Amino acid sequence: MVASVYCFLVVVLAGAQAFQPDDGDWRVENRQLQQMMMTFAEEMKTLKMKVEGPSGERGERDVAGNGSGGSSVYIRWGRTTCPGDTDASLIYDGIAGGTHFTHSGGGANYVCLPKDPEWGVFTDGNQGTPYMHGAEYQLAYGNSPFQGGALHDHDVPCAVCHVASRGSKLMIPARLSCPSGWTREYKGYLMTEHYSHYRSEFVCMDEDPETRPAGQGNANGALFYPVQAACGSLPCPNYVQGRELTCVVCTK
Q1: Dist. CA 205–CA 138, nearest whole Å
Q2: What's the pLDDT tens digit per position in 103-146?
């Protein structure tokens, strides 16, 4: 609306400038009218700026012509560091935790707890509300896909990683490679709670997991088991009955 009025005034002003009568009085009045129209046009221009606001700066664009890529955050399960070859930086390394495997309530996901908690208002002692437990590897069934030292009953570390240049993240089960154009952050094996326990979530445990210092012992809590393929509604082939599933975490 403001823009339409402004354009109309400009047209009128141009016509007034083109009309130059011979009579001196009319010339004086015409100049006065022109001055009034120019003043009014400036006021309308100022009003237009107040209503519409100044133009914003153009956002940065990447080399492909797309919008800025943004950033993403992911958890690297089983490790205390972020990958050294993907430009990922460590926000913090912590302790894998979750709901006790025998509890039907509580959270249904694993979390990466910081090692230095900060407390607000609290009441010491157990009040029967949900509890947060640490997590352990459970690899006593002879099917550990991990190479290296024994991991069974060891506490699980985790690392929260930040990628500044890639705004999308994706965990792909049953794959070790990322789609074209994506960056592989890390690869490993799919893990979750035992099928006879209460449900949790599927996470990608790093293929070369670490353990927390002095964290060995059958304290239970939240537990991590390797996930195996089960043929039936899951097609075999290409899946294979009882084979441990891989996973990969990708960013773009």
Answers
A1: 12
A2: 988 899 999 999 999 999 999 988 888 999 999 999 988 888 99
CATH (one of 3.30.310, 1.10.8, 2.170.240, 3.40.50) for 72-251: 2.170.240
Omega before 237 within 30 of 0, i.e. cis: yes
Cβ(71)–Cβ(163) below 8 Å: yes
Q: What are phi and psi of 169, to 5 degrees?
A: -135, 155
Cα 217 to Cα 195: distance, rounded to the nearest angstrom: 22
pTM: 0.71
Instruction: Tell me how far apart the alpha carbons of residues 35 and 39 are, in angstroms, rounded to a whole number.
Output: 6
Q: What are the domain boundaries of the chain?
A: 2-52, 72-251
Q: How far apart are CA 76 and CA 82, in angstroms?
A: 7
Distance, in Å, from the CA atom of 139 to the CA atom of 31, rounded to the nearest integer, reads 94
